[in-house]
Amino acid sequence: MCSGCNGKGTCDFNTILEDMSDVYKVVKCDCFTGYGGDHCSTLIDWCAAFDQCPEQTTCTTLPPELNNEANHTYFTCSACPAGYEQRGSKCIDVDECAREDTNNCTRNTSVCVNLVGSYYCNCTAAGFRNDANDPYTCQDPTDLK
Ligand SMILES: [Ca+2]
């Protein structure tokens, strides 16, 4: 006999799961993608099964109706945190100082210093200092009272 596979699979009458000899035989279920267990009653945790999201991101298992076997899409990864970009399977620090248009440092008063996950503007002009809460702005000493 077949359990019905919870409506989430088909019965494989060639594979005996439980043989109660002369009483009955329980056959295996071939579960639809995303479902598992003997009777297809459990959802597969693709994130636990594959663990392929980059560190620092969050894996989310897609519901079975969104699984795409052709594209092997069973889970999604969140974006890398701010200050990082994904390259291949890793979140890599963005070097904001590599290009002038990716940082807010003012050239004549500061120099950009890359940090892992961020950057800051190191004040170079005489007397200029970072505002206590703003690592990107160098304040003119005449503005500091
Ligand atoms: Ca950085």
UniProtKB/TrEMBL annotation:
Residues 93-139 form the EGF-like calcium-binding domain. Residues 1-41, 46-92, 96-139 form the EGF-like domain. Pfam families: EGF_CA. Signal peptide: none annotated. SUPFAM superfamilies: EGF/Laminin. Keywords: Disulfide bond, EGF-like domain. The keyword Disulfide bond applies. Gene3D superfamilies: Laminin. InterPro entries: EGF (IPR000742), EGF-like_Ca-bd_dom (IPR001881), EGF_Ca-bd_CS (IPR018097), NOTCH1_EGF-like (IPR049883). GO terms for molecular function: calcium ion binding. This is Uromodulin-like. It comes from Lingula anatina (Brachiopod). The lineage of its organism: Eukaryota, Metazoa, Spiralia, Lophotrochozoa, Brachiopoda. The gene is LOC106151375.
